[in-house]
Amino acid sequence: MGIDYNQGQIAEQYQEAKTQPWRSRIEAYSFLKVIGDVRGKKVLDVACGEGHYTRLLRRAGAARVVGLDISERMIALARDQEAREPLGIDYLVEDARTIVPQQEFDVVVAAYLLVYAQDRAELARMCRGLACRAKSGGRFITVTTNPDVYSFRSPDYRKYEFEMKLADHVFEGAPIELTVLDGSSFQVVNYYLPIAAHQSVFQAAGFGDFAVHMPGLSPAVELGDEGDYWDDFLNYPILVTMECVRD
Questions:
Q1: Strand ranges (DSSP E) for the chain?
Q2: Structure pTM?
Q3: What superfamily does domain 10-147+193-224+237-246 belong to in CATH?
């Protein structure tokens, strides 16, 4: 399923990339805004990586937080941070596509999980795995690569410290190559599936009330006037947040 984060220093490079300004100013701000109040709730972070959002949600007051990821190396990084700063989070090595006995999480979240589905069948396996983890009435929220990037002109994202490369034409499963430019650059390959495909597959897996949210920019008065710096990112957003509710 996509890049192997157990190889080399990829997990550490991915962790370091979380420090890029757009990750907090736009990605985290937009994702957490849609997730909303988690105080007292049971939260599952699927594809949790090194635990970035897992820790944020626990600090936001979630009663119980579990993180799972297919990468042993990512989970090792998450557990290392839990050992240094205990928050009471459980981290599990597990494939998000695995069907498990019905769980009862109030909120299931995922950052950049669905982007590794190369076709609708793979997306359906992921969604069925998510469905058996959320309780009836539970919400699933994901921040994911914007499927509409193939309709954009070619904005220059290099000032945000990454580049995006697309195939010559759009088709289901078309690659979306993202290269992180700061530090030791590395590449992540996502795959295109239209928003309509996501909605259809979620519905088939038992989710309703599907919605897509465009990203916004967090207030940051301390940074002063940024002029039009973020315009390309916001006018041609590489990410969106999707949410739905378990039937």
A1: 42-46, 64-69, 90-93, 105-111, 134-145, 162-166, 175-180, 186-191, 207-213, 239-246
A2: 0.91
A3: Vaccinia Virus protein VP39 (3.40.50.150)
